[in-house]
Write a structure and sequence with these properties.
Shape: globular
Structural class: alpha+beta
Helix content: 10-25%
Oligomer: single chain
Distance between the termini: 15 Å
Strand order of the largest sheet: 4-5-3-6
Strand content: 25-35%
Length: about 100
């Protein structure tokens, strides 16, 4: 479970490597919009930061979406821009974890 207020995750475990030693990271998409009182400058900074990390960034009017982002990079973006942007992230593992 991820606590966005504390920028931490707890009670969450998964196998980091598959049976032959390949990494199985969580990855997905991260979306960011400016706060109601924000000017949108942080959106441009986030897009530049994500591109520097090698990610594709989709632009819409007041939103940026980073595709195929890893958990570690999503946490880094949240720590860096979480006070100026509303950040939403959906991460999954392929194949999904089975209980």
């Amino acid at each position: 479970m991820y606590d966005c207020l504390q920028d931490s995750y707890t009670d969450f475990s998964f196998a980091i490597f598959d049976a032959v030693g390949r990494p199985r990271p969580l990855c997905g998409s991260l979306s960011a919009t400016p706060l109601p009182y924000g000017d949108g400058h942080a959106l441009h900074e986030l897009a530049a930061f994500a591109r520097d990390q090698g990610y594709d960034v989709e632009h819409s009017d007041q939103q940026r979406t980073v595709s195929d982002i890893s958990l570690a990079d999503a946490l880094a973006i949240n720590a860096r821009y979480g006070d100026t942007l509303i950040i939403s992230c959906d991460l999954r593992r392929d194949p999904p974890v089975r209980i």
